[in-house]
Amino acid sequence: MKRRTDAPQDRYYMVGLMFFILGLGTLLPWNFFMTASLYFQRRLETNESSNGTEVVRKEYYFNNWMTLLSQLPLLLFTLLNSFLYPRISEAIRIAGSLVFILLLFILTAVLVKVPMEEDCFFSVTMATIWFINSFGAVLQGSLFGLVGMLPQKYSSIFMSGQGLAGTFAAIAMLIAIGSKTDHETAALGYFITPCVGTLLTLFSYLVLPRLGFAQYYLKKSSTYEADTTDELLKGKLWLHKQLFTIIWVMAFCVTFVFTVTLSVFPAITVDVKTTSEGENWESYFISVCCFLIFNINDWLGRTITTKIRWPSKESRLFPVLVISRVGFIPLLMFCNVQSRNYLPVLFEHDAAFSVIMVFFSLSSGYFVCLSMSYAPQLVEPKDAETAGALMTFFLALGLSIGAALSFPLRKLI
């Protein structure tokens, strides 16, 4: 979208900052639950006595179920949000979702101090993950539609904020691990952090309409929506079909990128074991080499798109490069994932795993951000918000397919 010559200035780049924080807030729930896998696994480690003598550890497959139950509601509610957003005001969708996410985070923090039987704790955690990602889907879809009304660079800024959410969560976990407090107190501090982050996100959304630059671009969105609500409700499916014929390449690209990414991260990468000796490094290894490396480079890949946009949206090379990322799946499966039954370990050293993770995450962030920012440019300005919401559905579709594939891929190892 070209910037109008009569548009006001984004003073002190405040609108960019607000969308960066909003992007950060949309992925805080997913990243804080994902990065806390060590905490959840510790609470779910249990030994069951069989025949009075044999001791068997019950396997919950927490990371696989967490990934799947995060992405299925994301897919479902993104689809519902895409078709029904004219029925519910933007303020209720965004502010309401943030309030419920905050309440669910508070519940998770409280449960840190509540003793629970493992099966019960697993069930409550999975239900929390389901609901928190349901509200997150509505939030993300609404904000993607909103940022699609602004110049393209704001979409990149928004997604850069999303990329930083993972880094934020990984650093918070490292601080929790490195603290001298007991596990419960460290976990409590860890889950209080996203509560503060969600409050900051809510504040940023409430401030946004008061900024002249945002008012200029977003008011035409509300005017268009008010004038055409009946039309959207009656012909929503036809409109989406029309837009899909225009943006289908970008929809395919964002779906494929996340299918590859979620098929191995974190369900497989979190089970990679260090070959270096030293108890201290072992406790930090996954937080650093899996989560921190992934999230820093994913954020870097998204941020690069504010300066570099190659290949262009018309280039046939773009989907080819996206498809080539499928090679990361076997590369990561051949790392030192434990335990394993079938495949050999080809990349045993920590450095090999780290290098693969760098390129894996850098390419993920870069191609996702390009796909999401290119799509609204391919349609008329009045359809940019709908195109952004539609692309969010395909983003969620890729996440869900990848989460489902993580089960058989983990079994193959």
**Largest β-sheet summary:** 2 strands, antiparallel
CATH topology (fold) name: Growth Hormone, Chain: A
Query: Which homologous superfamily in CATH is the superfamily?
Result: MFS general substrate transporter like domains
Amino-to-carboxy terminus distance: 46 Å
Number of domains: 1
Radius of gyration: 22 Å
CATH class: Mainly Alpha
**Low-confidence sequence ranges:** 223-228
Give the % helix.
over 70%
What general outline do the C-alpha atoms trace? globular
What's the number of extended β-strand segments?
Answer: 2
**Beta-strand level of the residues, as a percent range?**
under 5%
Q: Helix/strand/pairing class, anyone?
A: mainly alpha
Please provide the ordered H/E string of secondary-structure elements. HHEEHHHHHHHHHHHH
Number of alpha- plus pi-helical segments: 14
Averaging pLDDT over every residue, what do you get? 84
The side-by-side strand order for the widest beta sheet comes to 1-2
Second CATH tier, the architecture: Up-down Bundle
Description:
The chain is built from 14 helices and 2 strands; from the N terminus they run ααββαααααααααααα. By secondary structure, it is mainly alpha-helical. The protein has one domain: Growth Hormone, Chain: A (Up-down Bundle). It has a two-stranded antiparallel ribbon with strand order 1-2.
